[in-house]
Every structure is written in structure tokens, then in C-alpha cells.
From TrEMBL:
Residues 89-209 form the GST C-terminal domain. It comes from the Eukaryota. The lineage of its organism: Eukaryota, Fungi, Fungi incertae sedis, Zoopagomycota, Kickxellomycotina. This is Maleylacetoacetate isomerase. It comes from Coemansia reversa (strain ATCC 12441 / NRRL 1564). It holds the Pfam family GST_C_2. Belongs to the GST superfamily. Zeta family.
Amino acid sequence: MERKPVLYMYYRSSSAARVSIALHYKGIEYEPRPVNLLQNEQLDEAYVSKNPSALVPLLIIDGCELSQSVAILEYLEETRPEVPLLPRDPAQRAHVRAIVGTICCDIQPLQNLRVLKTLPEEQRPEHARSIIARGLSVVEAMLEKTAGQFCVGDEVTFADCCLVPQLINAHRFGVDMGHFPHICAIEANASKLESFNRAHWTKQPGCPTELLSGPIQADS
């Protein structure tokens, strides 16, 4: 019997959530393995030997150890295309990848745990809020040309897998979402899908119950 894929993840990592959404959407059952970033478990020698970047996610699948969420999404699409997450049209694929790049290159890395830890604790929420709001303004402008029910047309794509987890941080850090009607509509549509709900951070292993209504912490 083929072994289940294993996803090393942190419960409130938006990068790991991208992969979790894609796995659920494609109907791929997997075993989640929590990596607690606050306790520096990602620096354990055994984990670093698998993933030299010492980041999450890491997906073990088909005998491969795959890091970097977007590379993992591409691998899943190439090896399991039956439930697609990319449009057939080349121009639409380019639009999807442009939105993905904006989120994964211009927003998330500038407000993640490693960056926030370099700032005084009292400055972290405002820094994250500013970075996220600026980036979402760009995404919103892009969506004016591409959006249907989801980021590019009416089908879920990589762009939605990346956008929705980023909105978890937007809400956590108090971004005014009233400026982003397309984004809010996409979030509402995604909330109706099991794949997005199952990947929500509150439903991941390792999520402390006390954080569900607790204060913001710099751990995304």
C-alpha cells in the first residue's frame, strides 16, 4: 500500500495552508506533522536535513522531499492534474501566477515570523498591517481585471490557495478589509468550500485552544 504523503506544517503558517488547501481540493489524503516555529522545532537537525531552509511547509510525497509552497503546488498540478488548479488558457495561467507572485513574494515574506522577530514587539502589528494592506491593494487592482467567483474566473486556482491564507493574517492584524470588495467576495466564496475550511488554522494540529480568542502574536 502506498504511504500517505506527509505535510510538515505550523498551524498558523499561511505558506503551509496553501499546500493544505491544494491537497484537500485535489482529494489527496495526507498526514500532518506539526512543527512549532515558536519553539524552534524547524531548527532541529533531523528536520533541517530534510529541508535546509528550516521553513515550513515540507511535503514528503512520491518518495520526494519538497519544500517551498509554490513549487509544491506546481508539483501537485503536474503529477495530479485530474482536479486542476491552473486554467488551460495560457494568459489566464499567467494571471494566476502573477497574483501568486504578488502574495508570495511581495506580501508574506515581509510580514512573516523571521521579519517580525527583528522588530520590537510593540511595532510588529503595525508593520504587518501596513505590509499586508499595501500588498492587498495591488491584488485588488489585479482582481478588477481577472476575478469571477474566484481570483481568475469561476474556478479555484493557485491564486485562491495563496490569497485566502493571507487574509487570515489580514484579519489578525486589523487590516481594514472594506477597501477590498473583490477580495472579500472571493473569501466568502472560498468559505463555502470544504478544502478551505479544513485548512483553516484553527483546525490544524498543534493549534493551542487558548489562542482561538487570545491576543495577536507574531507567529505567522
